[in-house]
Amino acid sequence: MTVALAPAVPEKGLRGGALGMVSSMVIGMSSTAPAYSIAATLGLIVLAGTGFKAAAFVLLSFVPVLFVAVAFRELNTAEPDCGTNFTWAARAFGAHAGWFTGWVVTVAQLLVMSSQSALTGRYTLLLFGASGAAGNRWVTTAIGAAWLLALCWLCYRGIEVSARAQWILLGVELVVLVLFSVVALVRVFDGTAGPQASVPRLDWLWPGGVGAGTAVSAVLLAVFIYWGWESSLSVNEESADPRHAPGRAAVLSTVLLVLNYLLVTVAALAFAGVGTEGIGLGNEANSDDVLAGLGGAVFGDGAGGKLLGVLLIVSVLTSGAATSQATIMPAARTTLSMASHGALPRVFGRVHPKYRTPSVATWAFGLVSLAVYVLLALVSDNVLSDSVDAVGLTIAIEYTMTALACVWVFRRTLFASVRNFVLRGLLPFVGGVFFLAVLVFALVEYAKPDAGETTVFGIGGVAVIGVVSIVLGVPLMFAVHRACRDFFAGRRLPRGVVRRDGDVIEPV
């Protein structure tokens, strides 16, 4: 079979060899916001009707995420491009599908930046004891905006500086989470946790006895706490081993995340129980942030306990800051890749000659994120909340497209070996179909009038915001079509070619 080679894409100018596998893994884990993700989601999973089985759904939701992570790894081995989803979807399904996938990923990153900016603004005030000001929308928005701009500047200054900051922020976050979990479990086992506590049991990890409706709701909630690990791959061109290290880092990130989430989940369930009063995780008053509600109870009211309670607030604050920073990096690199391949105007492909970072793309994403955040925050807290929930729809599309792209790109060699069949075919296909089903169920659930905080013409605001944000990509794609004719004609990033050192290895 003869396949024409694509014209070589010029070097993007990023700093190659700057990151090791561990640094890539740290970036991937940081992007998920482990502390905040579990704090803001665990109570909702319990309220869905799972009770102590919430731990089972945290574990169960990890499986399809792992399958998708394998697809990312395999595609990166073939073509380590910092555009990741955009590049691979274009290779598999054509230029229009690739551009639209890049847009969907960018929408997810823009919406999640609003969430994390609001979080850092609020928790900065809580750290200094200004709980009253933490409820003031204007004050929290201003501080959140300042955090966003500072983190953009950090990402602009260089990948090494960004990676070092990620090490510190993630380190603080994980140490405090482990400390919280250990203290909570020790108090449960020594009988000082209180009458609401329960000794952990193995059957908490099995979802048996939970109704189908409850199970679907729990999975929809739990599956998205893992989103972000793919940031490991967005820095692949800056890795010391671009083809292999980022993919391994992504898979290891998901494994470490599930271990961390299970430890915190089991500790919180055991200590607080699932009751509907007091510190119980079934109490709706605690659902927004279960760790904040448990900090004082677990650590006590003494001087040491108060210090550890402050550290728990610090862990959520660093979680939000680390996630914001780890969101800016992949967003800028997706834009850089799209411009390098001719899918966006050339100006977005500029790289700073000294810092070797996507200069225009970083600040463009930061300023657009700032505008979206301020607009959503000042319009309504309810709209901001529903916008965050709408991220789930974009994540489902992103994972579906990438997993199925893996199957399609490698389809001619799937039966060449058992490894190819399992890792490039079976697991990605199952993961892709799972997230396609999640997308459908999420649309149905989010469209219900009582699903979120707002409604539009009787339809849930989460579904409206998500669908409108995604569909907005269609007119934008046509708007850049004339300036990017070579790309959309398939001449810049042709379908059916994957390159390895200039050679075609997988004709599609």
Automatic annotation (TrEMBL):
Subcellular location: Cell membrane
Residues annotated as transmembrane: 21-48, 54-72, 93-118, 138-156, 168-189, 209-229, 250-274, 307-328, 360-379, 391-410, 422-444, 456-480
One MF annotation (Gene Ontology) recorded for this entry: transmembrane transporter activity
InterPro entries registered for this protein in UniProt: AA/rel_permease1 (IPR002293), APC_superfamily (IPR050367)
Name by which UniProt lists this protein: Amino acid transporter
Keywords: Cell membrane, Membrane, Transmembrane, Transmembrane helix
Species this protein is from: Amycolatopsis pretoriensis
Residues of the signal peptide: none
Example of a GO cellular component annotation carried by this entry: plasma membrane
Mode of membrane association: Multi-pass membrane protein
